[in-house]
Write a structure and sequence with these properties.
The protein has helices spanning about 5-20, 30-35, 40-50, 75-85, 110-125, 130-140, and strands at about 55-60, 65. The protein has about 140 residues and is mostly helical. The longest helix is centred in the last third of the chain and has 17 residues, at about 110-125.
Length: about 140
């Protein structure tokens, strides 16, 4: 499994919004500048996130985007599934139940199912707030004299 640029950029954009949650609506150009991502690329990601109602948008002067919920309410797995579709490591796991004609005799299917379970459990156990907290802890222990 490989996370696409779209998934990585969506996650970076969501983290940026989480970091600036107290700033009100954040302009896309500001996110693009801070994250070094093309504004046009972010404009392609926004509709995917808007359809899922995870962002709040405001048009016009001082318009922009903000998180619809607190950062601890956003699981990384949910964000990546929105942008990537399935996180399955093999195509046969894209359907439940498995539709592969070899499923009953496949010696590797349990291996892929286990990997898929671990991927989902891990990504669903981490929130935007968890990532921000880890960053804060990292910088809190960085003393310069």
């Amino acid at each position: 499994m490989k996370i696409s640029t779209k998934g990585r950029y969506a996650l970076r954009m969501m983290l940026d919004l989480a970091e600036h949650k107290n700033d009100g609506y954040v302009a896309l150009k500001d996110i693009a500048a801070r994250q070094n991502i093309s504004k046009k690329y972010l404009e392609q990601i926004i509709p995917v996130l808007n359809r899922a109602d995870i962002l709040s948008a405001n048009r016009g002067y001082q318009g922009g985007y903000k998180l619809a919920k607190a950062p601890d309410q956003y699981k990384i797995g949910d964000i990546l599934r929105l942008t990537e579709g399935s996180l399955a490591p093999v195509a046969c796991l894209n359907h439940c139940p498995v539709e592969c004609e070899r499923a009953e005799d496949c010696l590797t299917l349990p291996l892929w199912q286990g990997l898929y379970r671990v991927i989902n459990e891990y990504l669903d156990s981490v929130t935007l707030q968890d990532i921000l907290d880890r960053q804060s802890e990292m910088y809190a222990n960085d003393y310069v004299i």
